[in-house]
TrEMBL record:
Keywords: Endonuclease, Hydrolase, Nuclease
Record-linked Gene3D superfamilies: tt1808, chain A
Domain Putative restriction endonuclease span(s) in chain numbering: 22-166
Transmembrane in keyword set: no
A molecular function (GO) term: endonuclease activity
Pfam families found in the cross-reference section: Uma2
Name of protein: Uma2 family endonuclease
SUPFAM superfamilies the UniProt entry points to: Restriction endonuclease-like
Xref: InterPro entries: Nuclease_put_TT1808, Restrct_endonuc-II-like, Uma2
């Protein structure tokens, strides 16, 4: 019997788990778990999607053959009660399983929406940091801006920040040239 068939809704006050998350309908909204709390984000705006598409094409163009650039939502299983679904990720091809990833992606990217600002910048960043994700980027299409963190000695350090037409040239997980304004053109 699968976990999907065994799962029932949690009683009031009980935490959500991965099995409960699988019971939710695919309604176009992003449902994630953070420490047993179900977080449902609204459908993204067109500007969010434009920034996401442009960043995906930028990353795909320079992606080395051992890595894969993928749009979300894809499950990143942090723990039994924390499953995050980033907007975009870069992962080693040998970590791609049939349904789940084996281990952490090399890069997780979130594109901010007004409703997800604190969640993406603080809570998710902290969970990815604790889980050992090597690189975390946050794009704000409204500013437009991008902030990049990379892992140093088990903690994130800011690796770059740019607004408008300022370019960033990160080398991890590989070299790209990112211009926030061009992501929303």
């Amino acid at each position: 019997m699968t976990a999907h068939a065994q799962a029932t809704w949690p009683r009031p006050g009980e935490p959500f788990t991965k099995a409960h998350l699988e019971l939710l309908p695919d309604d176009g909204r992003r449902s994630e778990l953070l420490d047993g709390v179900l977080i449902v984000s609204p459908t993204p705006t067109w500007l969010h999607q434009r920034a996401l598409l442009n960043l995906m094409m930028l990353l795909h163009r320079d992606c080395p053959p051992e890595l894969e650039v993928l749009p979300g939502p894809l499950n990143i299983d942090i723990s039994e009660d924390s499953v995050l679904r980033p907007d975009l990720l870069v992962v080693r091809r040998d970590r791609l399983g049939e349904v789940h990833l084996a281990g952490m992606p090399d890069l997780v990217v979130e594109v901010l929406s007004p409703e997800t600002h604190r969640f993406d910048l603080d809570l998710k960043r902290g969970r990815y940091e604790d889980a050992g994700c090597p690189n975390y980027w946050v794009v704000d299409p409204d500013a437009p801006s991008i902030v990049m963190w990379d892992m140093v000695d088990g903690r994130y350090r800011e690796a770059g920040r740019a607004e408008g037409d300022t370019e960033l040239c990160p080398t991890s997980p590989y070299h790209v040239v990112a211009n926030p304004a061009r992501l929303v053109d």
